[in-house]
Amino acid sequence: RWQHLPVKLLLQTCHLEWCCWRIIMTKLMEWLTGAVLILGPWSAVVTNTIQNEFTKQYYMEILLFPVFLVAVFGLVSIAVIAYRVYTFNDCQEAAEELQQQIKEAKADLAKKGLKLD
After folding, report:
1. CB 3.0-4.6 Å disulfide test: which of 28, 40, 49, 94 passes with 44?
2. Where does this one sit in the cell (predicted)?
3. 25 versus 64: which is more confidently predicted?
């Protein structure tokens, strides 16, 4: 029972470190990690560091792969923006409350001698 205690502590420590690493990873780091994971193998194929029949046969498609990714990213971004604009909620209560606050502020300023149109 006690023989396995250091192993359990080691595993728990690694798990906590992994958990903490994931928590502090910023969005920039996520994007850079994704870019390295995609562009690393791509650049190896383009510079002929990796050569096989597949890369020779589909060299042009592999060469244009980042352009395709940027185009897909743009289309998805446009779709997300269009969806969010379409589903944007009107807040009638908030608008009425704001109009009431404007009236109160104008009345308060009028009491103090400031004339507003």
Report:
1. 49
2. Endoplasmic reticulum membrane
3. 64
Tokens 């944007």 appear where? Answer: 88
CB atoms within 10 A of CB 106: 14
- Do residues 62 and 55 touch, judged by C-beta distance below 8 A? yes
In angstroms, rounded to a whole number, what is the distance separating the alpha carbons of residues 10 and 31?
30
DSSP conformation letters of 22-91: HHH--HHHHHHHHHHHHHHHHHHHHTTSS--HHHHHTHHHHHTHHHHHHHHHHHHHHHHHHHHHHTPPP-
CB 41 within 8 A of CB 50: yes
pLDDT tier at 23, thresholds 50, 70, 90: low
The mean pLDDT of 91-98, rounded to a whole number, is 90
